[in-house]
Amino acid sequence: MFLRATLCVGLIVMLVSASVGHAQDRDRVYTGEGGMLFHPILLEKTADFEDVVTRVIDAMSNSADETRRAQAASWKVYRAAEPGPPDQTSVLYIFVIDPAVAEANYSIGELLRQELPLEAQELWEKFAASYAYSPSLINLTLVADFTDTELLPIATEVP
């Protein structure tokens, strides 16, 4: 009985792995020190998008895989206040990865397959259906970092 259950779960994972992520998903590997990924999401699908992203980040944060935990630790998700194209009917989400984990794949489809295999197909379909148009990836190289700049003391008036 245990062997049958194990084989069934293994088959499900293999089928999900083969089918999840082929529609729009590509490897998302950052070659720069950091990166950004712009996601134009349909206005009526923002809750679906946020649900999937939250599930992926939570799974990565609690993963047994050290690389996945490192990815989650340097990954922020922003939602733009301004409406997005086309015709102001989308919401722009921006993934900010700083620093990028070298050679790590940030593809949502791949992360779903690895971290949430039993839910991967359902979550991928919800995620893929949320797009207004294709996402854009940008690799970044740090030019200046003002976070470590020491602030000068404020001059006091001399009477």
Describe, in plain words, how this protein is organized in 3D.
This protein has a domain at 32-137: Alpha-Beta Plaits, CATH 3.30.70. With 159 residues, it is of the alpha+beta class. The protein has 5 helices and 4 strands. Strands 2-3-1-4 form a 4-stranded antiparallel β-sheet. The chain starts with a helix and ends in a 19-residue tail after the last strand. The protein is globular, with a radius of gyration of 20 Å. Strand 2 (75-84) and strand 3 form a beta hairpin. The chain is 37% helix and 20% strand.
- Could you name the CATH topology of the domain at 32-137? Alpha-Beta Plaits
What spatial order of strands do you see in the largest sheet? 2-3-1-4
What best-fitting shape do the alpha-carbon axes yield?
globular
Low-confidence stretches: 1-23
DSSP helix fraction:
25-40%
The SSE string, one letter per element, is HEHHEEHHE
Query: What structural class should be given to the helix and strand makeup?
Result: alpha+beta
Number of helices: 5
Mean pLDDT, as a whole number?
Answer: 84
CATH class category of the domain at 32-137: Alpha Beta
The name of the CATH architecture of the domain at 32-137 is 2-Layer Sandwich
Query: Main β-sheet, in a few words?
Result: 4 strands, antiparallel
SS elements, strand count: 4
Rg to the nearest angstrom? 20 Å
Strand content: 15-25%
Distance between the termini: 88 Å
